[in-house]
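Continued from yesterday's entry.
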Amino acid sequence: MPAAPDDVKAPPADAITSPTGLASKVLQAGSGTEKPGPSDTVTVHYSGWTTDGKQFDSSVDRGKTISFGLDQVIKGWTEGLQLMVTGEKRRFWIPGNLAYGENPRPGAPKGMLVFDVELFDIKKAPEPPPVPEDVAAPPADAVKTSSGLASKVLSPGNGSRHPKATDQVEVHYSGWTTDGELFDSSVVRGESIVFPLNRVISGWTEGVQLMVGGEKRRFWIPAELAYGKNPPPGAPAGMLVFDVELLDIL
C-alpha cells in the first residue's frame, strides 16, 4: 500500500494551481510530448487519499492499470490528466467541487482528495463529425411527414427491409441542437448503439422506420417529437438534428 504523501493535508508552496482550484505537482517527468484531450482514453496507475491521510482507492494495490475516457470521470481528473504526458507521474489536490462534493454519494469520499497518477498511454478519441451546414432548419429538398418530422437521405442503403417499431436496431448517430452544438454522438464514443425503436423519442421511432439497412439519413426532429421545449435535466431543448446510420435490424 503506497504511503500517504507528506503534503496530503494541503498543496505545498511549489504546487501549481489552476483557475478552477485544481493544484498539482510533477513527481516524475514524462517521456512523451503529447497530452490527452478531453474525450481521449487514458491508461493510468493511481492512488487516492483523503486529506487526513486515509487511502480510499489504489490501482497500484490491485496490481492492474485502469483505462477510462477523460469525459467519464470527476472534473478534477478530466482537467488534470490533460496537463500530463505519457510517462509522467503527478500529484493532484482536487477540491471537493471538482471531485465528489461535500455530500457525496454513498461510498464516495468527500471534500478535497489527493491523487498520485502515472500516465502510461493515450488513445485518441475519434474526431467529432462536422456540424451540418443545414443544421438551423430543414433544407428545401428535405421530405416532411404529417407529424412534422423532416429528413433527407445522405447515402442510400444496401437493404430493402424497413424496421418496425417493435424491432431492435443497431445504429451510429450524432445529434446537434439547431445552433450547431453537438450534444451526443456514438461516432465520437467509437461504439454503435442497439435499442428497441419503441423505447426512444417519437422522432426516432418514426424516422428510423423510413430507413433500410446501410442507409444514412439526416433528421430534423421538432421539439414535440423530441424532448420538448422544457426538457428534463440534461436533455436538449427544441428542434434537434440527427445524422443516423442504420447498421442492422435485429
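--- second protein ---
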Amino acid sequence: MEVNCEGCAGCCLDWRPLGAPDDREREGRYRALDDAYNLVPLARDEIRGFVDGGLGDALVPRLFAADGDRTATVGGREVAGVDGRPAFLVGIRKLPKPVAPFDGERVWLDACAFLDPDTLKCRIHDTDRYPERCRTYPGHNLELDAETECERVERVHGETRERLVDDAVSADLPPPPLSRGALGSTVFLHHDPDALADSGALGRLVDGAATPADRAAFVAAAAASAPGTAAVNEGRYERARERVLAADSWVRAAAADWEAAAGARGDRVGGAPEADHVEVERGAPRTTEWGR
C-alpha cells in the first residue's frame, strides 16, 4: 500500500468547504454527534501513551446517535450505549489552521492537531505516538472496496497525479475499530453516566463547546478500560483524569491561538500567525522534507 501525500493531507483535514463529497460519519445506524471529519479512533494503549506523555489535552471523545436497543440516555440525550452506559471512541482534536492543500490557495480548515500547516506533514510521523490506523490507512477502505480519501481528492479536484499509488492491502492491518472484540480496546463505555448527566458534558461535546474537564472524563475512562470487557478501573481512571487535566502541552496553547486567529472555515487566509511561533516554539516537533 503506497500513497502520495505531498501537498494533500486530505485524510488529516476537514476539506468539506473545498468540496469533500459526503458526510458519511453522520449517516447509518451510528451517527457521530460531533462535527469533526475523519476522526481517527485510537486504541487504548495509544491513548495511555498520549496521556502518560503529557498530551492528553490533544485528545477528544466521539459519541453517537443510534437506532435500536443499544442506546443509553444521558441528561435527556439518547446515544449509542450498552446497559445504560454511553459508548464512545477517542481521537485527536481538530484545530483551525491556515493550510493550502491540493495546490490551492491558503484557507482556514480544521486540521489534525499534529498536522504542520506549512508542510502538510504529520509532526508525530515515525514516532511511537503515530497512530496505527494512520500508519495503515487506507487499508480498511481497500479491504472493503470503499472509496479512499486519496481517491476522493483525485476525483473532486481533478488531479492528474495519483494519490493512491497502489491498492495492495497490508497484511498487518489492525482489526476494524468497531469490530467484534473492540470493547475496551477502541470502543469504550463510560462508567458513570449520572455524573456525565449532572455535569452537562454531553451537550457541550455535541455543541462543540467541550471543556478540558469534559474531554478528560472520557479520555480517562478509555485509558482505564480493560480490553474485551466493559470494566473501568476507578483508581486508574482518577489518576488518568488528573494527568489529562494537568496536561499543558503545546497543543493546548496552539489551539487557543489558532482559534483566536481563524476566519470562517474555507475562507482565504488574509493574515495568520506563523506556525513556527504558534506550535514549534511551544515544543511541537519539526517535520522533515518530503522524500526524507
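The radius of gyration is 19 Å. Residues 8 and 101 are 5 Å apart (CA to CA). Will compare against the first tomorrow.
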